[in-house]
Structure formats: structure tokens, C-alpha cells
Amino acid sequence: MQSTSRIARLFNRRNQDYYAGTLMMIIGLSAAYTGSGYGVGSFSRMGAGFFPVALGGLLVLVGVGIAMSRKHTDTAVESQASTEMPRKSDVSLGLRMRGWLCIIASIIAFVVLGKYGGLLPASFAVGLIAALGDPDNRLRDALLLALALCVVATVVFWWALRMQFPLFTWG
Amino acid sequence: MLAQSLFDLWHGFAIALEPHNLMWVFFGVLVGNLIGVLPGMGALSAMSILLPLTYAMHAVPAVLMLAGIFYGSQYGGAIGAILLNLPCHPPHAVTCLDGYPMTRQGRGGAALGITMIASFVAASFGIVVMVFASPALVRIAFKFGPAELFSIMLLGLIVGGTMSRGAPLKGIAMVLVGLLVGMVGTDVNTGTMRFTLGFIDLADGVQLVALALGLFGVTEFLRNVNCMDAVGSGMKVSLRDMRPSGAELRQAAGPIARGTLIGTLFGAMPGTGPTITTFIAYALEKRIARQPERFGQGAIEGVASPEAASHSKTQVDFIPTMSLGIPGDAVMALILGALLIQGIQPGPQLIVQHADLFWGLIASFWIGNVLLIVLNVPLIGLWVRMLRVPYRLLFPAALFFIAVGVYSTNNSLFEVLEVLVFGLAGAVFVLLEFPVAPILLGYVLGPMVEENFRRAMVLSQGDPAIFVERPISCAFVSLCALLIVVQLGFWLRRLIGRRRGRDVGMERRAFEGK
């Protein structure tokens, strides 16, 4: 519980807009800087960097605007919340992290095993690792789900749709 | 002209009824409905997941299928909203308000039936508007040069950014980010590689599938994992319950008509999201009702009108997308992107050059809506069971389909990594309360915006005044300026109001301190 309150403090309304604005400024600046290397040109002879620099500059301005507009009234947020799915509010940070890490790891595993293993190991890994992200899934559930996905991968994608992805491969 | 339109429409029916095309419409509606019912999956995720499939198809069945998925999932979302109080798709949030109370009173079947009738009537009306408005709009659109196209796209981007959920500035920021993502890859005019970060795989730019699945698939899973409330309710809906009584039909007729008109009106304005439209339809019904206190307690008007509005808006939304090439929201941007991948440039030429596609699409709306009714009557029991698929099994399976689907578009594992990167970026944006849908809008329009700006500059020999010198373009630019001024006005008023509030508070505190 303590960890959630720490996130809450970190992301209270006002700080959040500072972070959001700063992030936009960083994206805008780096886009404009990179873009200026492509040759900006002029209105009559536009270079490849013209649009990136213009967009980056605009993004910096918008970022400044976001950072300055602190929210006081939460009405906008409330109306947005009502269009959301019902969510648990008291999920601990550790539990959330577990879900996030497993989702990220599952996709990375798919890419790595897809290259050095083939379709079947990759499908098995993505299902198994992602399923383990939810503590309600026991190992047996996750294994069964992963096996089911392997069957789908073989029958639907490899056999029926003739996808160019060997079932087993090395490199 | 009218006779010509009707003749073309007749031809469109012939195309949509071809067995091959009909099969894909059916498939799209069925799968869209299925995915739309699943908790946490909306129209955007459904369309993104099936987008890779369209790469191997011809343009006509591909677009027919995508459209089918769209309205299929929309209807599926309504089922979740009414039976379980789950707004899987934001526009259905309003439907929950009265739909769920109806379910609790045992009238859930009737609510679903009314929804079906409302969506069919509204869609039909929207289609009729589309048949008559599109050719007229095209005749104007043929007068458009690069300057006009740039201005109208600018308008579309500004509206799309500011009208979405959340703070307008944040929407604009996301549109800009989307435009930048659209710049990635080889610049067509100079051959310069832009923002490729040294990856040769990015020379062709970011893939639409990777971006869409990252933003609407992985981001959603990262957001929802271990946070979804378990849903369980043992309601049963039988076939017989789905037939609303005569009294209910009479009660719903007016709201359906009003909702349809509202949806059509707002559909014609690019960028006003479906969520806003449904909220307005609901508010209007509540305003004119004789007993407004019934709303929220299971008033059938509160289900009929918003559902009608959202469906007629959906149809009318296709008009600017197809005839001008300006998508109104992220869903339309996705359909536009799919057309571009097929090598079809949406815009005024589309109706003439690809008449079969355009009229086939219109005809397929009708057929698809009939299919929806035919499908939903027997399958409602299945949908109810689908609603209870636990999220813990749903998201790993969906991740698998995403990974394999993206791989299959270009046989590239690199694009699977792209999905992950966009998913993570989207999750950070969502955490900071940015709306992510405008990114897709910016991404799809980005290359076209740049191209038309460039052409306009060549035409005017580098004089930006061309955008205000040409009358049509000037009108669009003025609208853009008006929108920005209005938004600034809102912002200033809030600022002043807040400051005044604070001053009063300080005075009071000073007074009490004495």
C-alpha cells in the first residue's frame, strides 16, 4: 500500500503536467535538432529537414504550454474516468510491475526465440511468459494456454495460412 | 445525378453480394462482434489485430472486412455495456447509464433488441446521406489544389486533436508526435533517410500495423494487466426476451429519430468523436423528457438515442474519409491507412477511379447491418458467455496474435519489436494522461500534409500567403484560427476564474486572520 501512495505522490496532478510538458519538449527538441541535420531549406526550396524542424519547434511550444497549465479542477478527469472500464484501484506497485515486465519479456522472447528457435518455441514462450504476469494463473494454466497457442500457430498460421515462419530453426 | 447515384448504388450491391466479398463482410462482422464483446477490447484493437490479414487481400474485400469489423465490434461493445455495465468502447459509456439498470430489472433483452433496431435505422439513414452527399462533396473537392488540401488536413488535425478526450493541448501534442512518426523513413522528395536511428528496417517508414497494435494493443494490456475487475453476473438472455414490446417500441421511436439526426449532424463535422456525440444525444433526451428523473433508472430512451447517434455518425464519418481523404478519428485513420497500403489514394478521385470500392462499401454497410441482426439473435447466448472470458487468459492469447500477426505482414521480427516500443511509448503517454488515438491520425495524414504543403509552396514560389489568398483554403484556415481562439478563450476564462477564486479565498483568510 505504501508503494501506491508513493506513486500517487509522484504523479499528483501538478507534477504530472510538468513531466508531460518536459517530455514533449525533449521529443520536440531532439526532433528539431536531428531534423536540422537533414537540410532545412527555405519556403520555395524546402529541404528534408523543413517539416521535422517545424514540427519539433511546435512540439516544444506545446510542451511549454502543457507544463504551464496546471490543473486545479478535476472535472475533465472525472468525466474521462466514467468512460473507463471498472478498475481495481488498490493494486500494489509490485503486482503491476510483474504484469508489465512479463508482457515486455514475452514479446522480447518471441523475437529472440523466433530468430533462434522457430515459430513453435516463440509461440510457446509468448503465451507462457505473458500468462505468468497474472498471479491468478497457476503454472499449469499458463502451460496449457501456451500449448493451445502452439496448436493455433501450427494449424492456423503455419499450415492453413502458409506463413513464412519455420516451426523450428536455428539462426 | 440522383439517377446516376442510384444506379451506382445498384452496382455496389452487385459487388457487395459477390460470394467472395460477402464472405469477408460476414467474417468481419462476426469477428468484430466477437472481439468487441471481449472485455477490454474495442473497435481499434479488433481492427488492428485483423489488419495484417488485409495485406494478402484485394482492396475491395479488405475494406469491406475492416468496415464490418468496425460496426461489428461497435455492436459487441453495446452488449457488454448493457449486460455487464462494461464500457468496452468509450462511446458506450452512456449506454451503460440506462442499459445496465434495464438489465437489472430483467429488461436487458429488450434493451439489446432496441439497440439493434436503433443501430439499423440509424445506419440506414446514414447510408442514405452518404449516397447523396458524397458525389456532391466530390464535385467541390475536385476544385481543391494542394493549398486547399493542406488547409483542410490542418483543420482535421486540429479538430481531431482538440476534440478528443482530455486536455486539448495534450491532444495537439499527440498529433504532432504522430506527424513526426509519419516522417520516419526515406523522404520521397530528397531521398534523405529521416529518423531511422541507423536501422535499415526503418527506411520504409514505420508500419501502420506495428503502430496501431502497439498503441491500441500492447498499451492497453500494460495499462489493464492485474487491474481489471473480475466481472461475474449470472444473467441469461433468451431469444424471446430480445423482442421489445409494442409500448417500448413506440417509446423508443422518437429518441431513435432524434439520435440519428444528431449523429448525422456531428458526423459531418470532422473530428467530433463518437463519445461526444453520444453524450449530447443522451443529454438532449434527458432535457426534453417529461420525467427526467427516470434517466439512470433504466429509461429506454437513454439507450435508444445514444446508440442511434453513434451508428449514424459512424456511417456519415465515412464521407470525409472517402471523398476528401480526411479521416475524422483514429478508426477512420486506420481504414485510410489500409487503403493507402493497398495503393489506393483516398480523395475526390476515389469515387470515380474506384467506383466499385466506394459503392460496394456503401452497399456492404446495409448488408453488414442485416447480417448483424441475423447473427445476434441466435448467438446472443454465446456472446454472454464470451463476456466472461477471464482477462488473465485473454491478454496472453492476444499478445500471441499480435506478435504473429505483425510478423506475417512483412515476415520481419524487427516489426514485432516496433510494436513493443510503441506499446511502451503509448503506456508512458497514457500514464501522463495523453490521449493516444490522435497519434494515429497524425501518422496517417503526416506524409500527405507534408507533400501538399510542399506542392503549394512550389506553386506559390515560396509565398505562404497562398493559404489565405485562395478562398476555399482561406475558409479552412479561418476555421482553424477560430478553433484555436475559442480554445484559448476557454483557457483564459478558466485562468481568470481561478485567480478570482483564489483572491477571494485569500481575502477571506486575511479577514478571518484579523
Helix-strand blueprint:
The complex is a heterodimer of chains A (171) and B (514).
Chain A: H1 2-10, H2 13-36, H3 50-68, H4 75-81, H5 93-115, H6 119-131, H7 139-160
Helix pairs in contact in A: 2-3, 5-6, 6-7
Chain B: H1 2-16, H2 19-37, H3 43-54, H4 59-84, H5 93-104, H6 108-141, H7 146-162, H8 168-183, E1 185-186, E2 193-194, H9 208-224, H10 246-267, H11 274-288, H12 301-324, H13 330-341, H14 348-353, H15 355-386, H16 391-410, H17 413-431, H18 437-459, H19 466-469, H20 471-513
Antiparallel strand pairs in B: 1-2
Helix pairs in contact in B: 1-15, 2-3, 2-4, 2-15, 3-4, 3-9, 3-13, 3-16, 4-5, 4-6, 4-13, 4-15, 5-6, 5-12, 6-10, 6-12, 6-15, 7-8, 7-18, 7-20, 8-18, 9-16, 9-17, 9-18, 10-11, 10-12, 11-12, 13-18, 16-17
What does this structure look like?
The complex is a heterodimer of chains A (171) and B (514). With 171 residues, chain A is mainly alpha-helical. Chain A has helices at residues 2-10, 13-36, 50-68, 75-81, 93-115, 119-131, 139-160. Mean pLDDT of chain A is 81; it is low at 72-83. In chain B, 75% of the residues lie in helices and 1% in strands. Chain B has a two-stranded antiparallel ribbon. In chain B, α4 (59-84) packs parallel to α15 (355-386) and α13 (330-341) crosses α18 (437-459). Chains A and B meet through α2, α3, α4, α5 and α6 of A and α8, α9, α16, α17 and α18 of B.
Helix-strand string of chain A:
HHHHHHH
Q: What string, H for helix and E for strand, traces the elements of chain B in order? A: HHHHHHHHEEHHHHHHHHHHHH
Q: End-to-end span of chain A in angstroms?
A: 46 Å
Radius of gyration of chain A: 23 Å
Structural class of chain A: mainly alpha
The proportion of residues in beta strands of chain B is under 5%
Helical content band of chain A:
55-70%
Poorly predicted sequence stretches spanning 5 or more consecutive residues of chain B: none
User: Reading side by side through the largest sheet of chain B, how are the strands ordered?
Assistant: 1-2
Overall morphology of chain A: flat
Largest sheet of chain B: 2 strands, antiparallel
Q: Strand percentage of chain A, roughly? A: under 5%
Task: Say what oligomer this is.
Answer: heterodimer
Q: Largest inter-chain interface?
A: A-B, 86 and 76 residues
